[in-house]
């Protein structure tokens, strides 16, 4: 298969490969990584055709462009040699095209005179068309990859531009320009990446059970999916402001995505009103009706982790009576209690297993402490949650100082991929006792560590937990 | 709240979810509003198999909307036949090759996506609990004694 050079953005490195793989799956393209390095913004792919390369990249957020790879080398002589070697394949169709030559140096810079010299060193190529800097028919780029602090590039590539990526959307959806956001809104770039991972596309049904200000709904709708959102906090859905109302709907209107917005409603995931697929058979065998679920569940730090219910058993006291008496009144707000983070993750996976169509995806964010064990091995206080009906597709990490968060993507397995033993074992396993602790810290390891500054946990706490 | 959304929702109480009476929820004192939405033939085609047709019929009946046919339209009824059409099922990108959307598809679009409940209540047929809909946003939070 011919080789293509992807110019990646040098950011969110662990997401880039997973994003390209997700896009290949979405477009049904055979993809093979011939070269990929987290430390380099250049990636070489083997793909069936130039048109498949353009299709692959057009909605990618973490790459900039894709190029037909004409030559590669470790220095200029080897680059020129490689260029000559493949000349008969690549040069003939372009000899009379208008063209442009540019230089793209990563982690290095060249004065414009040197740039000119480097470009002129390709003068032997039989390009007789006129030079056109905007919209030329042939756009050739010399890519230079410098190691940190190096004076000479470690790798060189020459490529013909095939297509630009969808990275411009990052600017279009920038939170700074969005009317309605909150402290926990996901930044536009990562929300769009999440939508790519979950394979959002026209005609699909997507849902975010922790929608907040609707960042994932906007991202899903951008890629053509129709979106639902719900949140336990009705205020986030109803929005703010009187006349100049800012809410999820106004965000959708701002981006012209209103036709992709289905509904927002107030609901709690642990008592969700959403129905499973109806009909005979077990949930696991039937598959559901959602094509994708994207969510960033509350970590319990900035947003409280709450579900419906009373904090403690009220017995016969007035609290319970008040609830029974008054729940029909206008403006009644049901009581909520703190909930365990692990239990919530389990609930999300169970929900996804029941509601997703076979092959549908769950893309979920999850925070974790960056703990280094004695032996240098990273220890995560909560492992990656798993479900027999969901296969883990990718794990991407966004590191912060003392903690990081991971984007976990799962695929709903088909009934013959699901092990019936594992499923029945899960069903028969007594549901772990969650959510009976008194306060948020007891229930949420991550929250407790966050507020302890990620220091070593005290002995008593370790003893308490099993 | 669109009628499409309502077709995917049941009573939030765990005890009710397993019962047949809890689905669909029945609108009460519903104030309807027609909100124009751009037609997406592909979307209508994709969701039709996921819609519970009987529940949708009941809902239209409850709301006094025109009666829907007894069975859901076949996929073939959604597009006028196109001689060069070889597309079946999967092809998401190939929608252009499917021919023109028929009146049946447009009617479905109108019922599912343009007809919305602005104000009112949704009542569970099993436990009788009423969920309020205000400004098109339904509230499914349960009081603690029903959790």
Walk me through the structure:
Chain A folds into two domains: 3-165, 2-Layer Sandwich (VC0802-like); 173-451, Rossmann fold (3-Layer(aba) Sandwich), CATH 3.40.50.150. In chain A, α1 packs across α2 (50-57) and α7 crosses α8 (215-222). With 466 residues, chain A is α/β, with parallel strands linked by helices. Chain A has helices at residues 13-27, 50-57, 76-85, 87-90, 112-120, 168-172, 188-197, 215-222, 234-238, 248-254, 283-286, 318-326, 341-355, 420-428, 440-443, 445-451, 459-464, and strands at residues 3-8, 32-35, 42-46, 63-73, 99-106, 138-145, 155-164, 205-208, 226-231, 261-266, 290-295, 306-308, 336-338, 356-369, 371-372, 378-379, 390-399, 403-412. Helices cover 29% and strands 25% of the residues of chain A. Chain A is elongated and about 90 Å long. In chain A, the strands form four sheets. Chain A has a seven-stranded mixed beta sheet with strand order 2-3-1-4-7-6-5. A seven-stranded mixed beta sheet of chain A has the order 10-9-8-11-14-18-17. By secondary structure, chain B is of the alpha+beta class. Chain B has a single domain (3-80, 92-146), classed as N-terminal domain of TfIIb. Chain B is 26% helix and 17% strand. Chain B contains five helices and four strands; from the N terminus they run ααβαααβββ. Chain B has helices spanning 3-6, 14-17, 41-47, 53-63, 103-114; strands spanning 26-34, 115-123, 130-134, 137-138. In chain B, strands 1-2-3-4 form a four-stranded antiparallel beta sheet. In chain B, β2 (115-123) and β3 form a beta hairpin.
């Amino acid at each position: 298969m011919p080789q293509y050079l992807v110019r990646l953005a040098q950011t969110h490195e662990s997401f880039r490969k997973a994003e390209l793989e997700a896009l290949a799956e979405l477009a049904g393209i055979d993809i093979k990584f011939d070269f990929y390095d987290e430390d380099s913004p250049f990636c070489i792919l083997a793909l069936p055709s130039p048109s498949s390369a353009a299709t692959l990249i057009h909605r990618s957020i973490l790459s900039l462009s894709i190029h037909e790879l004409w030559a590669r080398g470790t220095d200029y002589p080897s680059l020129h040699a490689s260029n000559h070697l493949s000349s008969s394949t690549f040069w003939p169709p372009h000899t009379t095209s208008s063209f442009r030559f540019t230089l793209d140096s990563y982690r290095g810079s060249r004065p414009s005179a040197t740039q000119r010299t480097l470009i002129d060193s390709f003068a032997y190529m039989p390009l007789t068309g006129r030079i056109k800097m905007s919209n030329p028919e042939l756009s050739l780029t010399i890519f230079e990859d410098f190691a940190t602090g190096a004076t000479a590039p470690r790798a060189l590539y020459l490529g013909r531009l095939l297509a630009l990526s969808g990275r411009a959307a990052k600017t279009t959806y920038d939170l700074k320009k969005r009317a309605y956001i909150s402290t926990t809104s996901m930044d536009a770039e990562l929300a769009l990446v999440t939508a790519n991972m979950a394979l959002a596309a026209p005609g699909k049904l997507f849902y975010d059970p922790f929608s907040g200000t609707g960042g994932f709904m906007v991202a899903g709708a951008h890629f053509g999916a129709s979106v639902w959102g719900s949140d336990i906090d009705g205020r986030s859905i109803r929005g703010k402001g009187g006349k100049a109302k800012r809410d999820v709907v106004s965000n959708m209107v701002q981006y012209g995505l209103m036709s992709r917005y289905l509904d927002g409603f107030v609901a709690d995931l642990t008592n969700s009103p959403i129905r499973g697929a109806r009909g005979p058979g077990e949930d696991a065998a039937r598959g559901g009706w959602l094509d994708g679920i994207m969510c960033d569940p509350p970590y319990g730090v900035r947003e409280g982790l709450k579900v419906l219910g009373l904090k403690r058993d009220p017995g016969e006291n007035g609290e319970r009576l008040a609830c029974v008496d008054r729940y029909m009144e206008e403006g009644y707000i049901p009581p909520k209690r703190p909930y365990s983070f692990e239990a919530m993750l389990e609930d999300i996976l169970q929900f996804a297993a029941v509601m997703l169509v076979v092959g549908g995806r769950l893309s979920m964010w999850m925070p974790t402490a960056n703990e280094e064990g004695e032996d240098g091995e990273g220890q995560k206080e909560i492992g990656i949650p798993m479900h027999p009906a969901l296969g883990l597709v990718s794990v991407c990490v966004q590191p912060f100082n003392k903690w990081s968060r991971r984007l976990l993507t799962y695929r709903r397995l088909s009934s013959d991929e699901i092990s019936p033993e594992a499923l029945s074992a899960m069903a028969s396993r007594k549901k772990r006792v969650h959510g009976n602790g008194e306060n948020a810290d007891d229930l949420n390891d991550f929250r407790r560590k966050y507020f302890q500054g990620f220091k070593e946990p005290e002995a008593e706490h370790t003893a308490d937990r099993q | 709240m669109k009628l499409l959304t309502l077709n995917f929702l049941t009573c939030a109480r765990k005890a009710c979810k397993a019962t047949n009476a809890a689905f669909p929820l029945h609108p009460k004192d519903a104030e309807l509003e027609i909100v124009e939405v751009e037609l997406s033939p592909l979307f209508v085609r994709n969701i039709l198999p996921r819609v519970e047709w009987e529940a949708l019929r009941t809902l239209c009946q409850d709301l006094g909307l025109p009666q829907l046919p007894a069975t859901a339209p076949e996929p073939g009824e959604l597009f006028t036949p196109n001689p060069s059409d070889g597309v079946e099922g999967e092809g998401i990108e190939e929608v252009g090759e499917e021919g023109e959307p028929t009146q049946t598809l447009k009617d479905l679009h109108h019922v599912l996506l343009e007809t919305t409940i602005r104000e009112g209540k949704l009542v569970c047929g099993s436990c009788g609990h009423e969920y309020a809909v205000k400004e098109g946003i339904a509230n499914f939070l349960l009081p603690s004694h029903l959790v």
